[in-house]
User: What shape does this take?
Amino acid sequence: QVQLVESGGGLVQAGGSLRLSCAASGRTFSSRIMGWFRQAPGKEREFVAAISWIGGTTRYTGTVKGRFTISRDNAKNTVYLQLSSLKPEETAVYYCAADPTPRFPPTIQVVPNAYDYWGQGTQVTVSS
Assistant: This one.
């Protein structure tokens, strides 16, 4: 089992920045990929970004490229998501997730059901 705890959400004005953190505990060595998703009210959960623990390979959804940055600190078992130039439509609950499944060739999945472990989420509200 892997436990994930997000933090860092809050209220920010449009154009502002936040840094989200996801602390992993438990069988963290089995978490091959760490991802961030978000879900706005009435909408489906959508992929934002992900990173591999080994090698630091990253993947972003197109709408956040150049504005969001995912990173990880292996020593702290923590993944970060730096949010910049935030837009009101990016108001959502942001979730951290772990994908433990080895794939050949190794790929980063963007669908929620590829991720087995989830945090409780952290609210990000962007005011206009």
